[in-house]
Input
Amino acid sequence: MTSRQANGVAQERRRYPPPLPQPSSSSASFRGCCCCLFLLFSFLALLVLAAVLVVILVVKPRKPEFDLQQVSVQYMGINPTAASSATVSLVIHMVFVASNDNKVGIQYSESRFTAMYRGIPLGRGTIAGFYQPAHSVRRIETTIAVDRVNLLQAEAADMVRDASLNDRVEFRIVGDVGAKIRILGVTSPGVEVSVDCSIAISPTKQALINKQCGFDGLTI
Output
């Protein structure tokens, strides 16, 4: 082949480049199948979400009611240990009532309640999680035990004075109750019921003399 012919062939190749390789039909089918599956799952998820929203609108779930119904004093002792300190021991038994007026069940998570004196945590009680069916009332019990907790300076003096002069010592019981509504096997986002109770105990009578509770800002 002469040089002139070789140059002509090179010019033809530059003018008409070789065709690019076409994607195989199997890879195109695979991508199409993935797109179809993604659209199908998205549609099913939206369908389930729409069904749950419709059920919620029909059922109209309400917030659960969680009430501290009864408090009993099993033991209370205050022992001054020095001029400016004292130890307190306390055992109180609490009975809560959970009312579910909804058409669906409620799943409660584990709840903790703390006994406090003038903002100082003394002891804690726990209620295990449980499931409550629709249109039901359930009693739940727990005990808070305080074993010789030291109070210093002003708090100890206040407690000794309240117990000796007034025969009345006030405590606070605080806690959060977590609950979720279960509809068609689907659990809703959690809601919390805040419990804040003030109780007054007579050390000489070893008895409760006053109780006032607030739930989510409502005083009962």
